């Protein structure tokens, strides 16, 4: 109230800057003292949290300005000004290492100032010394006051996280520097580790999305690939943040890294193991190392040559071998003994088959086989009753009995052309949210029952159809799932714009034989539409 009465006594036109608000409750108290005098007053607030920024704006019809990283030119000016007290007069011998240091700083003023301050404090400025500092950024070996200051500021942001977000952030230390991290892969990894808790199972993914977005809003993650809704599909961890969480993970024995800059500690039980690119210093895990407590194993590309038999991992929950192109199908023969496995990522490998006993993995939630050489799944895969996500390569054949997999929420690129029985079974998967189907060369008699069974999948939000050389009639209204938000059917042209297109549709990609003015008006009246991809053939004879 003291602040309020103080402002009442001063002139009504004012400019107020409130720096670094961390809590929405603080803003709730402060805004009481701010008079809406309509005299051109302005309020500027700064914060690291998007939620706080939006709260500040909502009360005064304001706007959120997202501060962009410094350009490369401005980064160089700031860097050299701090070290040499000038912007363009520096030893040419340090140019190359300077560029590498600036790349790590990624345009963040805090990172640039902190590293520059460290270098400025050194008694000599040699190429060797600067490379030592460059190499220490990702290892935590440099413990000067400037690095401690930077880590202190980043640690403040980390300590402000609620416990569940701290755990989810530490999980990201499994990824190498500059690695592009897929949002869905990250979220389902959290689910497999029981980091996400919700009373209703169906909300686990949505809750994971909330965690992901909150870490972005707090600037702990950097969004990379933005979709049509403004949401990040992939992210990366800034080098400085990765340095912090890698150090914290080591202290808490949360993640152990083989192939990184620090040696793998064998003094504690290994709970999560990240085996990164082979840098020539490591050939294989120490055979005496106890791996019986490892819950998570991530292997990156060529590092596949460094791992022992899967029989060493008795309680493994998460196994990700994505993009390990040297992976041999024979290596997976023991995978069926990993009875606690919940997440299995084998995408973008050259494996040709799965073990016939894959059905033994009764707790498996995610099976990712995208862009592999597998053409047909074993018959026992239908025994995976807790499987939530099944991703295969285009046209992969799925055995009879898939209707038993009633927990499925995401089913991608399966071949539905094999038999009418499969089409019927598809209608029993009532939990499906995402469905991508391949329908090349199927019998036209399947079409009517397919649309009928599709209408029973009430939770479908995303439907993609790959059906080259097949004319599917999606123009009727009765089949449309009520929650449908995204519809892709690029290969099969429509004779007219479907009447079922409604106000809830957000993404639409179709081909039309011909478009009329009324069709344009219908499309223009869709309030939720974010993305439209429309190809008009306009040649009925073709």
From TrEMBL:
GO terms for biological process: defense response to bacterium; innate immune response-activating signaling pathway; plant-type hypersensitive response. Residues 293-535 form the Disease resistance R13L4/SHOC-2-like LRR domain. The keyword Aminoacyl-tRNA synthetase does not apply. It comes from the Eukaryota. Gene3D superfamilies: Helical domain of apoptotic protease-activating factors (1.10.8.430), P-loop containing nucleotide triphosphate hydrolases (3.40.50.300), Ribonuclease Inhibitor (3.80.10.10), Winged helix-like DNA-binding domain superfamily/Winged helix DNA-binding domain (1.10.10.10). Residues 174-245 form the Disease resistance protein winged helix domain. InterPro entries: Apaf_helical, Disease_R_plants, LRR_dom_sf, LRR_R13L4/SHOC2-like, NB-ARC, P-loop_NTPase, WH-like_DNA-bd_sf, WHD_DRP. It holds the Pfam family LRR_14. This is Uncharacterized protein. It comes from Aegilops tauschii subsp. strangulata (Goatgrass).
């Amino acid at each position: 109230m003291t602040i309020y009465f103080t402002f009442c006594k001063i002139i009504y036109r004012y400019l107020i800057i409130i720096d670094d608000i961390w809590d929405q409750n603080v803003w709730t108290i402060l805004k009481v003292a701010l008079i809406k005098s309509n005299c051109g007053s302005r309020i500027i607030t700064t914060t690291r949290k998007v939620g706080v920024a939006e709260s500040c704006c909502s009360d005064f019809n304001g706007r959120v300005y997202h501060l962009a990283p410094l350009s490369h030119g401005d980064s160089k000016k700031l860097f050299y000004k701090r070290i040499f007290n000038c912007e363009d007069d520096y030893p040419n011998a340090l140019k190359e290492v300077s560029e590498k240091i600036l790349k790590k700083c990624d345009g963040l003023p805090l990172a640039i100032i902190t590293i520059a301050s460290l270098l400025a404090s050194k008694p000599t400025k040699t190429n060797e010394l600067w490379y030592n500092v460059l190499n220490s950024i990702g290892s935590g070996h440099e413990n000067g006051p400037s690095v401690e200051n930077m880590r202190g500021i980043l640690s403040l942001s980390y300590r402000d996280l609620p416990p569940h977000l701290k755990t989810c952030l530490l999980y990201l230390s499994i990824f190498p520097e500059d690695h592009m991290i897929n949002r869905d892969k990250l979220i389902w990894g959290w689910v497999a580790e029981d980091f996400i808790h919700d009373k209703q199972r169906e909300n686990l993914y949505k809750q994971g999305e909330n965690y992901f977005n909150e870490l972005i809003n707090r600037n702990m993650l950097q969004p990379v690939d933005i979709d049509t809704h403004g949401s990040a599909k992939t992210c990366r961890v800034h080098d400085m943040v990765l340095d912090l969480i890698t150090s914290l993970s080591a202290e808490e024995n949360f993640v152990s890294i083989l192939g990184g800059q620090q040696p793998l500690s064998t003094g504690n039980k290994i709970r999560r193991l990240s085996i990164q690119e082979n840098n020539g210093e490591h050939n294989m895990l120490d055979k005496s190392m106890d791996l019986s407590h490892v819950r998570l194993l991530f292997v990156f590309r060529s590092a596949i040559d460094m791992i022992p038999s899967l029989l060493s991992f008795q309680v493994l929950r998460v196994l990700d071998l994505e993009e390990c192109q040297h992976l041999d199908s024979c290596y997976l023969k023991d995978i069926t003994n990993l009875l606690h496995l919940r997440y299995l990522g084998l995408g973008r490998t050259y494996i040709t088959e799965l073990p016939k006993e894959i059905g033994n993995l009764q707790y498996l939630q995610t099976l990712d086989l995208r862009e592999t050489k597998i053409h047909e799944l074993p018959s026992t895969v239908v025994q995976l009753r807790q499987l939530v996500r099944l991703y295969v390569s285009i046209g992969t054949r799925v055995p009879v009995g898939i209707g038993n997999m009633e927990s499925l929420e995401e089913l991608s690129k399966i071949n539905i052309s094999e038999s009418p029985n499969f089409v019927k079974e598809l209608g029993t998967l009532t939990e499906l949210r995402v469905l991508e189907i391949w329908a090349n060369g199927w019998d036209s008699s399947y079409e009517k029952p397919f649309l009928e069974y599709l209408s029973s999948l009430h939770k479908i939000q995303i439907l993609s159809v790959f059906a080259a050389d097949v004319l599917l009639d999606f123009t009727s209204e009765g089949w449309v799932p009520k929650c449908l938000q995204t519809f892709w059917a690029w290969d099969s042209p429509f004779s007219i714009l479907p009447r079922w297109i409604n106000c809830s549709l957000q993404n639409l990609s179709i081909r039309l034989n011909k478009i009329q003015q009324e069709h344009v008006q219908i499309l223009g009246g869709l309030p939720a539409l974010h993305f439209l991809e429309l190809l008009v053939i306009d040649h009925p004879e073709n």
